[in-house]
């Protein structure tokens, strides 16, 4: 049995055992109806997946990408979360071609902030450390897709002092006039992360952009 078939067989067998209709309804409403839910809480989901992942063979980079895409094509949202859990668990097997081949497809599959940010943390930030891909980030940042723009702005999440501050601020600067909530919020989060180790850079950015959206300013000032 192939890596993908084994993975999907096990997950589709195990996940439905833990479905909760009340929790599913609440999650569906909270996520604005982006996708149906089984109603599995995050801790249970991760515990199920950890057992499944441990029993899988080591994947190739393409097996990892194609399996994640296959999970994203399933209807319930927990399978989409499993896609980024899968990538995070097997991240060491993703090669320098992974982002170009799979990242955009994954991010734009039934996109909402939950999967976009999950993929950013599990896939985009760690892989752009190993395999810097400025060309891809530039393409996304200059696109008309709000989720790709959001991903580009947040592509260095969690790096702290390893963050390329001037470049992240440049990515933010291009969208300071945006009225799109999810882009404005992304700018705020990027500034908030930078403020943890470089408050001066954030203060200067806010001073330079006095009309920056309230949501971004609020987040940026959280640790100032």
Oligomeric state of the chains in view: single chain
- Helix tally equals 13
Query: Which sheet architecture does the biggest sheet show?
Result: none
Number of strands: 0
* Helix residue percentage: 55-70%
Identify low-pLDDT runs: none
Using the alpha-carbon principal axes, give the shape: globular
Radius of gyration: 18 Å
Secondary structure class reads mainly alpha
Distance between the termini: 53 Å
N-to-C SSE string, H for helix and E for strand: HHHHHHHHHHHHH
Mean pLDDT: 97
| Percentage of β-strand residues | under 5%
What topology does this entry show?
Layout: H1 3-14, H2 21-30, H3 42-54, H4 61-72, H5 77-89, H6 98-107, H7 113-130, H8 134-141, H9 146-153, H10 165-173, H11 181-195, H12 199-208, H13 214-220
Helix pairs in contact: 1-3, 1-4, 3-5, 4-5, 4-6, 5-7, 6-7, 8-9, 9-11, 10-11, 11-12, 11-13
């Amino acid at each position: 049995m192939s890596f993908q078939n084994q993975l999907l067989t096990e997950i589709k067998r195990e996940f439905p055992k833990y479905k909760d209709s009340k929790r599913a309804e609440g999650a569906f409403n909270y996520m604005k109806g982006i996708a149906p839910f089984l109603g599995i809480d995050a801790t249970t989901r991760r515990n199920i997946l950890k057992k499944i992942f441990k029993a899988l063979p080591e994947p190739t980079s393409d097996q990892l990408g194609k399996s994640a895409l296959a999970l994203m094509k399933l209807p319930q949202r927990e399978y989409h979360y499993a896609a980024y859990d899968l990538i995070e668990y097997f991240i060491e097997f993703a090669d320098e071609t992974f982002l170009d081949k799979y990242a955009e497809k994954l991010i734009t599959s039934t996109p909402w902030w939950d999967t976009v940010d999950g993929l950013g943390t599990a896939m985009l930030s760690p892989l752009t450390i190993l395999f810097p891909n400025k060309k891809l980030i530039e393409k996304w940042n200059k696109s008309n897709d709000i989720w790709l723009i959001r991903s580009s702005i947040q592509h260095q999440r969690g790096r702290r002092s390893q963050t390329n501050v001037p470049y992240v601020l440049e990515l933010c600067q291009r969208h300071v006039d945006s009225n799109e909530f999810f882009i404005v919020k992304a700018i705020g989060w990027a500034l908030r992360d930078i403020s943890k180790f470089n408050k001066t850079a954030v203060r200067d950015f806010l001073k330079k952009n006095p009309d920056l959206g309230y949501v971004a300013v609020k987040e940026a000032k959280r640790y100032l």
